[in-house]
């Protein structure tokens, strides 16, 4: 569902900066896909990562128009909520985790690919997009439980999106547990809204360079 512009300075009420992955095994697995620029980006907080790379002021309108076309293309699927952020430069897709996982589970449903495939395809367009994926839970259970659930789920999404990709993809995961609810966790419907995966699609360096040279054209 298309939601239009979102102009929040900071989209998070409370940041619990937990850079993924946490286990040594997961770190070893993900290190195989790292490039030097991405390693540097992983040292950033979530807020800082959502602000880079910076689009020069002269290219803002061109890049924002390009990303607007991408947002409309994604919203036409009518599967996830699509918004724009950072004055139109960044597209944010929000997918309810109930669509991706069974209750309290960390293994993706077979149908999850219908939601995730468009984002895997965007990552295959090398150099065009940086993606930040953020996992949220409701507050059911202890903080230790919701943190672990959030971490395991963002790792599952990361692994699915990064499979069969080149090592230079720019994909960075974070788990926030129950620290950033959209609404109060005071009803079943509200808790369902808070259980979500957010995918931030950020124009990467190639988009900016093409905008500078007048060659940035959106193609589905």
List keywords for this structure.
globular; about 40% helix; alpha/beta; disordered N terminus; about 220 residues
Q: What this model shows, in words?
A:
This protein has 220 residues and is an alpha/beta fold. The protein is 40% helix and 17% strand. The chain contains nine helices and six strands. Strands 1-2-3-6-4-5 form a six-stranded mixed β-sheet, with helices on both faces. Helix 6 (112-123) crosses helix 7. The two termini are 19 Å apart. The model is unreliable at 1-29 (pLDDT under 50).
Number of strands: 6
Oligomer: single chain
Low-pLDDT regions: 1-29
Query: What's the pLDDT, averaged over the residues?
Result: 86
User: What's the overall geometry?
Assistant: globular
**Biggest beta sheet attributes:** 6 strands, mixed
Give the neighbour order of strands across the main sheet: 1-2-3-6-4-5
SSE series = EHHHHEEHHEHEHEH
Task: Classify the beta-strand content into a percent band.
Answer: 15-25%
- State the secondary-structure class: alpha/beta
Global Rg:
17 Å
Number of helices: 9
Topology of this structure?
Elements: E1 2-5, H1 24-31, H2 36-42, H3 46-49, H4 60-75, E2 81-85, E3 90-96, H5 97-100, H6 112-123, E4 129-136, H7 143-162, E5 171-175, H8 188-194, E6 196-203, H9 205-213
Helix pairs in contact: 6-7
Offer a quick outline of the entry.
With 220 residues, the chain is of the alpha/beta class.
